[in-house]
Design brief:
This protein is mainly alpha-helical and 1016 residues long. The protein has 44 helices and 15 strands. A hairpin with a 2-residue loop joins strand 5 and strand 6.
């Protein structure tokens, strides 16, 4: 954003190579008010008072909103959209104050004053000249009101103060005659200002004009007496006395006191690679703090940089100090508190204060022995100094509090492995690992570009280092110190050697585990236990409930320990109340667990975690999918589970825990706990199919089926076979699914299990629908309907009616389809099953679309999409979007249609759903065909045909063949089109899709006619 604001003159907005002069006075006042408080919120009450003094209009808030809206539009036109932010009861101009000329002026003058005080007059003059050039006239020129008038007075006084600094420098350098005209004009403008009179007297005396110098004094004396009834002050009277006594001009000059050279104790350090945003945050904070010299100092400027070991906190702080050193002319001091220095004792508070005070030139002999007196001396030293103090490797907030100076114009930069809170004025930057591009650049900066030309290998190395700066530097240093090594050799050692923790090292600093070890050993006993066991967790993330089970701790204790580990940057919180470890810290935690815990202790911990996973997954499954076929409740581990409020929350938990739950099943299956694995597979079955992870799920169900068969538990074996068939159907492995369902149906009949038998028939009906054998699908669905009609289960009846409705639709019997779908819709509404209600709306929309009732089809889809979006079910949202696009008109709505199709296609591909991907490609091709983009249409239909054939989806194959033939006919490929239409007719007739077969025959008849008419 290139926005700049002028208030030192007429109020103007500069940005996007344009200037907005703000014709309205109210707009100018709004901009002026917010600009002068840039970066700080201004209350609506203050804005109203500043705009209208004490006579606001009848509806001041409404008027204010109007002006703010106008200013927002102006900012947007200048490319600064979003910088005017509404806050509670006010507004904030979210802009670096340095982009406002008045703030820039104050900043430059403050720097110049500090430089002048140190005797750096030429540098100070350069800054003062830059500051004075910002003035283009009267501040807030043309703006009415008491507030604007008051601001003009303040800003004018600040300019006068800057002019006096400039005059003092000119006097010290002997430019007396040059100063007389400007000082004379100032004296006429400020008739009773003794400070101006003193400088004019000195300038006149310095260039030999004694009479003029005395006349200035006499004039001011008379004005003071006449206008104020006062005599000249002591300073002006003393100056008059010196002139009368012909004192040397040197005695009249105001020279800065000689000072001890400003300390600069920064250690040598590497250049910063990356971290531009974090560095900018610190520099902006430091710049604002430095410029705000007029505000009373109640607190110090305090900036903390926190993060895990090796993330680059110190390097960032040292580079930031380099960047802002010119703003803090009284010194830059660094102190390493050695909290995490291997083999060294941390500094005590007394030692730390002593080092800090000595850095500012106080001799050891002058140091008091009393700690309180030492603290008072330290605070007194920084009371007026403008310095940067870096307190590196702070242990905690308590230690920091003992080392802070009092209110001071200095800046304190703090680095710590813990998040520090509870200190006034504190601003925090939390460092994470480097982005991949910056990590690669850091490795090359250390190892050299000649040795790192293999970008892919370097990318793998920095990834194995977890993108952690210390790890990257150690590995790059190893490569740089071994001339015979290549990046390929280093990569091989990292992946095939003793493990990353041992390989990431150098001779001077040891391996990276040493940096972690200091943090780990500083933990309390229970914190160390939790950290160790976190290395054994099943998935990448974990919540407090699972941690409580893993560590055998009460839930509240586990929560408190996780909070402490989070503050110590030993764990991370990638999403609310879910925790993980950095890649290398995870490996370190696992290594500690393997070395410090017995085999029995580790096995017990993993057993507790697996049992908790089963208990929680089973509870979530029953809430998320309350009506699905299942066995009796799994054995309870007796531990608390998350308090999900509804089915959506339970599904969200299953999604967050999915990788860990599947890892728990795999662990149980491969370590001899096959029963627990089989129960977990059952608890996860519905969710895995629902969320598009059936490819992983069917392997779990195959193992579960085998376990229950070997255990001679026929009841659970049947359920596992149904789960297996469902997962295989979702993966489009239809023949394998038919085998599983057939086994389940046989077992259900042998064991007289009508409920399982009915469910198997239901799933077989769905399977044959997928296969395009609609008559067989209808037969199974009719059998299922008869079974459920006998039980009077209205929900099951609605489920059957829904399937019958969609099957009749594909058979071309639209009347029967509508009757069944309407009955299903009523049943699901009564049962409050919103998900299946939405699915039935989608099927009804398909029927209405085929019967030329597009408006009602679109209404059904809009309602379904609202429901499914709230439930966050990606596959069904994608399917609904495809149907919604199908109701639109091509080419009029082609762009919108293609966007919806592509979004859905991406979802289906991610979920591995080839049948629905084929359906989406068919629809996309049809839209392109309607827009006469026949080549693109044919390409989409060929792709759809390949996918449909690969999964044995006969209906989708037939419709893709038909559509491809129509596109080929338009492209003049008549023979290929005839072959494809003939195949489409055969498939449609075989599956009983009479309507589809009739449509294909019509197309073939037209094609034959075109072939006969084709020139020979």
């Amino acid at each position: 954003m290139d926005l700049r604001i002028r208030v030192l003159g007429p109020v103007e907005l500069h940005g996007n190579q344009q200037i907005d002069t703000l014709g309205s006075t109210r707009d100018g006042l709004i901009v002026g008010c917010l600009a002068l408080d840039a970066g700080r919120p201004v209350s609506t009450d203050s804005l109203i008072h500043r705009l209208w003094d004490d006579t606001p209009p009848a509806r001041p808030l409404a008027n204010l909103y109007t002006y703010v809206a106008r200013v927002r539009r102006r900012l947007r036109d200048l490319g600064a959209e979003g910088c005017l932010v509404q806050r509670t009861h006010g507004y904030l101009l979210d802009l670096d104050p340095d982009r406002v000329d008045s703030h820039r002026f104050q900043h430059l003058v403050a720097q110049a004053r500090a430089l002048s005080d140190r005797g750096a007059d030429q540098q100070a003059l350069r800054l003062l000249g830059e500051a004075d050039a910002l003035w283009l006239g009267e501040p807030l020129a043309g703006l009415p009101g008491l507030w604007a008038e008051g601001v003009r007075g303040v800003l004018t006084e600040r300019r006068l103060a800057a002019q006096l600094i400039r005059a003092d420098i000119g006097l010290r350098e002997g430019h007396f005659a040059d100063l007389v005209p400007d000082l004379t004009a100032l004296a006429e403008e400020h008739r009773t200002d003794e400070a101006i009179a003193a400088r004019l007297m000195t300038a006149a005396y310095g260039c030999g004009r004694l009479t003029d110098a005395l006349r200035v004094y006499d004039t001011v004396r008379r004005r003071l007496a006449g206008e104020l009834g006062a005599d000249p002050g002591e300073a002006l009277a003393r100056l008059h006395h010196l002139i009368l006594n012909s004192a040397p001009v040197e005695a009249l000059l105001n020279r800065p006191e000689p000072t001890v050279p400003a300390p600069r104790t920064l250690p040598s350090h590497a250049e910063l690679v990356g971290r531009e945003a974090e560095l900018s945050t610190i520099v902006q904070h430091a710049t604002r703090a430095s410029a705000d010299t007029s505000a009373p100092r109640h607190i110090i400027a305090l900036q903390t940089v926190s993060g895990m070991a090796g993330v680059g906190k110190t390097v960032l702080a040292l580079n930031a100090a380099d960047r802002i050193a010119s703003l803090y002319p009284d010194g830059v001091v660094h102190l390493d508190l050695r909290t995490h220095a291997p083999g060294q004792q941390p500094l005590t508070v007394i030692s730390a204060l002593t080092s800090l005070i000595r850095a500012f030139g106080v001799p050891a002999s002058a140091l008091p022995g009393d700690p309180d007196a030492l603290t008072a001396l330290w605070r007194g030293l920084l009371d007026t100094r403008r310095a940067v103090v870096i307190l590196d490797d702070v242990r905690d907030a308590r230690q920091l509090r003992d080392l802070l100076p009092g209110p001071s114009p200095s800046l304190v930069l703090v680095t710590s492995r813990r998040r520090l809170t509870g200190l006034p004025g504190l601003r925090s930057v939390d460092l994470d690992v480097l982005p991949a591009a910056d990590a690669l650049a850091l490795f090359r900066s250390v190892a050299g570009h000649e040795r790192t030309r293999q970008t892919g290998e370097v990318a793998d190395i920095v990834r194995l280092a977890g993108f952690l700066p210390l790890g990257i530097e150690l590995l790059a240093g190893r490569l740089a110190s071994r001339p015979t090594w290549t990046t390929s050799h280093l990569l091989r050692r990292l992946t095939q050697g003793q493990g990353r923790l041992r390989e990431i090292r150098d001779g001077a600093r040891g391996n990276i585990a040493a940096a972690f070890d200091v943090s780990f050993r500083a933990l309390e006993s229970v914190e160390r236990k939790v950290f160790r066991f976190l290395g054994l967790r099943f998935g990448p993330t974990i919540d407090a409930y699972a941690v409580a089970a893993l560590t055998d701790l009460p839930l509240d204790t586990a929560e408190n320990v996780l909070e402490s580990l989070l503050e110590a940057h030993l764990i991370q919180e990638p999403s609310p109340e879910r925790y993980t470890l950095h890649d290398l810290l995870g490996e370190y935690a696992r290594a500690i667990a393997m070395s410090e815990e017995s085999n029995a202790a580790r096995e017990e911990a993993l057993s507790r975690l697996a049992e908790f996973c089963l208990q929680a997954a089973d509870a979530a499954d029953r809430l998320a999918y309350p009506r699905r076929l299942r066995t009796d409740r799994a054995h309870s581990a007796g531990r608390p589970v998350p308090p999900w409020g509804d089915a959506t929350a339970a599904r969200d938990w299953l999604a967050a825990e999915r990788i860990g739950l599947m890892a728990a099943e795999r662990h149980c299956r491969t370590t001899g706990h096959s029963r627990l694995a089989a129960l977990l597979a059952s608890a996860l079955a519905a969710f895995l199919d629902d969320d598009g992870h059936s490819a992983e799920g069917w392997r779990m169900h195959a193992a579960a089926t085998e376990h229950w068969r070997e255990s001679d538990d026929r009841h659970r074996e049947i359920h596992a076979l149904i789960d297996l068939g469902n997962a295989l159907t979702c993966c489009s492995r239809y023949e394998d699914a038919r085998t599983a369902y057939t086994r389940a149906l046989t077992a259900a009949e042998e064991t007289s299990d009508p409920e399982s038998g009915a469910e198997t028939l239901h799933q077989l009906g769905i399977l044959y629908w997928h296969l395009g054998d609609f008559r067989q699908a209808l037969a199974y669905q009719s059998r299922t309907l008869a079974l459920h009609a006998a039980t009077g289960d209205d929900w099951q009846l609605a489920r059957c009616r829904s399937n019958l409705g969609i099957t009749h639709l594909y058979l071309g019997d639209f009347t029967e389809s509508e009757k069944n779908l309407e009955a299903a819709l009523d049943g699901f509404r009564e049962a409050r099953d919103l998900r299946r209600y939405a699915r039935t709306l989608i099927n009804l929309s398909d029927l209405h679309l085929r019967t030329e009732r597009k408006d009602t089809a679109r209404e059904f889809l809009d309602e379904a999409l609202t429901i499914l979006t709230e439930m966050r079910i990606p596959a069904e949202i994608a399917g609904t979007q495809v149907n919604l696009a199908n109701t639109m008109e091509s080419p009029r709505d082609l762009t919108k249609m293609l966007d919806l199709y592509q979004d859905s296609l991406t979802t289906f591909r991610r979920l591995g759903d080839r049948r629905n991907a084929a359906e989406t490609l068919y629809a996309m091709g049809s839209a392109l065909h309607a827009a006469h983009r026949f080549t693109e249409a044919a390409d989409r239909h060929r792709h759809s045909l390949e996918l449909a054939r690969s999964v044995g989806a006969v209906h989708e194959t037939a419709q893709a063949l038909h559509a491809l033939a129509l596109a080929e006919q338009q492209l003049g490929q008549l023979d290929a089109a005839a072959d494809h239409l003939t195949e489409a007719i055969t498939l449609a007739e075989r599956t009983g899709a009479a309507h589809e077969a009739a449509e294909a025959r019509k197309s073939l008849t037209k094609l034959r006619r075109a072939q006969k008419e084709r020139p020979q």
